[in-house]
Design brief:
Helix content is 21%, strand content 15%. It is built from two helices and three strands; from the N terminus they run βββαα. The protein has a three-stranded antiparallel beta sheet.
């Protein structure tokens, strides 16, 4: 089968157990009826669930530290 865009012979490859046709020249991908649904279903079965979200905690800084404000030399001599 030829690529409808540039006329190059299409190459058959297997992705998630589904044979797809692609053009090595323009990198276009052509699927037969139902192949996209099969790929989506099979890839969804292999993806891990997202990690649970944690609530915001005011006490944790999540790796961000506030810079300590630099005082003058008088701060070292006197307790303000």
């Amino acid at each position: 089968m030829k690529c409808p865009i540039d006329g190059t012979n299409l190459v058959i490859a297997e992705r998630s157990g589904v044979e797809i046709d692609y053009c090595p020249q323009c990198r276009g991908v052509w699927l037969d009826r139902g192949e996209l649904d099969k790929i989506i279903d099979r890839s969804a079965a292999h993806t891990p669930p997202p990690p649970p979200q944690q609530g915001y905690d005011d006490r944790s800084d999540h790796g961000y530290r506030k810079k300590k404000k630099r005082g003058s030399f008088l701060d070292e001599l006197f307790d303000f």
